[in-house]
Every structure is written in structure tokens, then in C-alpha cells.
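Teaching note: in complex prediction, the entire set of molecules is handled at once rather than each chain in isolation. The prompt given to students was simply: 'Predict the structure of this complex.' The entities are:
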Amino acid sequence: MPSLKDLRNRIASVKATQKITKAMQMVAAAKLRRAQEAAEAARPYSERMGSVLANITQAIGGGGDAPALMTGTGKDDVHLLVVCTAERGLCGGFNSQIARLARDHIRRLLADGKQVKIICVGKKGFDILRRDYAAMIIDRVDLREVKTLGFVNADAIAKKVIHLFNEGGFDICTLFYSQFKSVISQIPTAQQIIPAGLASAPAEAIEGGNAVYEYEPEPGEILSDLIPRNISVQVFRALLENAAGEMGAKMSAMDNATRNAGEMINKLSITYNRQRQAQITKELIEIISGAEAL
Amino acid sequence: MAEAFKFELVSPERLLVSEQVESVVIPGAEGEMTVMAHHAPVMTTIKPGVVTVKTASGGEERYVVFGGFADIVPAGCTLLAESAVAVKDVDRADLARRIKEAREDAVDAKDDQARSKAEQFLSQLTTLEGAILPA
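The expected output is the structure of the full assembly:
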């Protein structure tokens, strides 16, 4: 049985923890709002990019001058996995969910006899994947120093990927990230970015979109300029969604932790009070029985 | 007064402009062009340069863009810029950094094609610097 002093100390320490988790929750909530705004602000660009790409591919009509980034190498022997996770923990199952999805994917690929290469974005994913697949990790990108996620960060990653592709380093590239559905639900997602899967691109909705375009320079040239940019945009979107998802997951994880701490404080206080009462009663009995003995 | 049309300037980070304008001057890859209402559908890449927007209310705004492309239809014009800032907010250091990077790219280029591309980009950047910064 812990003494009264022990209990008092425990309660004090749990209270301190609760204060920390509460503060973290509030910080995450504020950051979440900002991350969400950033994700929303980036949406118009990627949407327009999608519709323009759809337009232009239609114009080319799958002709022979489509760049390799779009058609792929025609093989699927070497797979590159870009796994985007958070830089920090304490956000529930957020990182492990993404890592699990990636790991399942890797296992399936390996079972099929494919070669796998991994690029880790974010420290946590690297830590998890390093345990099993250290030999396959060819690169990691650290965004720890980055305060506000900019397009340049995504661009740098995309450039790396494209450079590798041009050197013939892989055939198919898949991006792993967490889609931000709501504060309490983030869906780990795998998205193939090379070759770009544009087959399902929605039909152009903008008025006059079906008009015959003039292209300056040639469509093929525009396309070869556009596709790498599209990859950067996809990576950027993934990073933003991740950032929002991380904050959402952190917020709910910290909310849980705060509630648990509260419960624990309640329980400990009850034990503490009971014990104190027992001690008082014991002392009273001692006094009374002492007086009676006289 | 010329007819107004919808112009949007979008960078990956945010939507900079979305309003009714009278005319827009775009630094197209094959020369500057002025877009007005009912322009024929054109798709063009843009080079680093200044976009001049004449709004329907009569004001004039200028933005610096670093590459991207423009999608022009009779009903409007969408400019997807890789990065865009209002001229008055241009960061001299940032521009200098970009020029330095471009210069390094030109030096590092492996084949002639890549080198001429990098050099072209570099010259576009330096012209841009000359155009917006008082010497």
C-alpha cells in the first residue's frame, strides 16, 4: 500500500502530465487549422493542373511523343516507394498506419520477385521501415527544419525522383501518404505517380474546354514540361495532406491522453482520501481506547 | 472600355488573383502576349517574367512569376505559376539565390541540350532582375 506522501506525489505528477498533453492538444488544434488552410489553398492549383493535363493528353491522343514519365518504361521490375510520414511521434497510430500500408505493399512486391527501393520522407517512417528493410532505403528526406511546408520542399523531392527515373533507377513509383479525411480519420493511401495514371481523368468541365486549343510551343513539349511539374504537385499535396493529418491525429491522441490523465487523477484522489480517512479513524480509535484505559 | 473576363493566378501554395480583369500581359515562352476577353483558346508555357494585370475597376497590378503555364479560353484565363509574388513583395535575396542556382545548373549541365536550356533560363532570370529592380 503506497503511503499518503507517495499518493500525493503521483497525483501531482499525473496533473503535470495532463497539463502537458492539454497544451499539446491545443497547439495541435491551432496547427491543424493552419495546415488545413494550406491544404485548401493548394487545392485549386492541383485541380486546374489535373484538368489541363486531361485536356492536353486528349489533344495528343496517346501519340508516340508522350514523355516516358507518362507512359512508363514498359516494365515493372523495380519499384520505388516514396513513404511520407511525420517528423514527430505522439500522434496515435498515424505513422504506423502509413508504415504498415507500405510494408504490406513491399511484402507483396517481394513475393512477386520485384525489386524494391524506398525513399523515406519524414523521420518516423524511416525509423519504422529501417527495422525490416534497411537495405532497400536509398534515400531519406528530412523536413524537420522546415517550419512551413513550401512548394520548394515538394519540388526537391520530385526532382530527386525524376532524376532517378531518368537514370533508369526504377520503373514504377508509388507515393505513400495519409489522406486527410477529417480530424479523427486519416486514410493511409498509396498513389502511383510514375507512370502517371491519367486514364481516369475526369472530363473537362470548364466552359469552352472542348474547343480546339492552340499550343505554344508544341503539345509534346508542353507535356514534357508539365508532367514533372505535376509530380511535384502530387508530392506537395501529399505532404500537405500529411501535415494536416498528423495534426488531426495528434489532436485526438492528446485529447485521449488528457482524458485518461483526468480519470487517473480521480482514481488516485479517491484512494488518497480513503486512506487519509482510514488514518484519521485509526488515530481516533487510538486516542479513545487510550482514554478508556485510564 | 474593353470587356472584362475572368482571370486567375494560381501558385501551388495559394490562389493569388481571381477577379474580373480587362487585360493581362503574359510572358509566354515564345513571346509576351496580351490576353483580352474572347481570346482564342491557347495553351502556353510561360517563362520567368512579369505578369501585368489590368483590373476591370481600372487598377493595375504586377506579379513576378517563375515559370509555369497559362490556359486561355474565351471565357477566361488561368495562369498556373510555379511560384508567384506581387512585384512590390519581391525578395531581392530570393531572386539572387535563384540566379545563383540557375548559374550552377548551367555549369553542371551534362549535355548541350541541358546546358542551352539552363542558360536560357538563366538569361530569362537576369532579364527579369533587370526589369523589376532599379539598378
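Point out the following to students. Residues 199-209 of chain A have pLDDT under 50 and may be disordered. The CA atoms of residues 49 and 230 of chain A lie 7 Å apart.
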